[in-house]
Amino acid sequence: MIAKNRAFVNLAYAVHGFKFDYTVTYNGKKRIPYTGTNLPAYRLPGYSPQFLLMNAQVSKTFGSRFPFDVYVGAENITNYFQQQVIVAADQPFSNQFDASMVWGPVSGRMFYGGLRFTIK
After folding, report:
1. Burial letters for 24-48: b for 16+ Cβ neighbours within 10 Å, e otherwise?
2. pLDDT tens digits, 15-59
3. From 3, 11, 84, 90, which residue has the greatest number of CB atoms within 10 Å?
């Protein structure tokens, strides 16, 4: 379940106390273990789809003697995530239950913000 093709790009820029960061990760298709003997509702395709993950953050530094940063950002901007993470989740005691078929993100878009400072 490792992608044969992967790519990673990070763009970062700083100007006048602002810092901009943008990251894109490409994950190619991954081979999924054979589930053809499962009931039809619990069968998976042979490969996962390819997908992009995008993250971005903007921060601003304030102060010179005791500098601190204020930042906002977003992870998984495209809101792409794996829909069926656990095979046969509705049948936890069956032979077809399988929680190991995770090939992609399991949570959607997330926004955050915060304050960063250093204590000396």
Report:
1. beebebbeeeebeebeeebebeeeb
2. 998 999 999 999 999 999 998 999 999 999 999 999 999 999 999
3. 3
d(CA 28, CA 10): 18
Q: Which amino acid is at 120?
A: K
Residue with tokens 């204590």: 119
Q: How many whole angstroms separate alpha carbon 37 and alpha carbon 96?
A: 9
Q: What is the pLDDT of residues 1-14, one digit of tens each?
A: 788 999 999 999 99
* Residue 25 Cα to chain centre, angstroms: 9
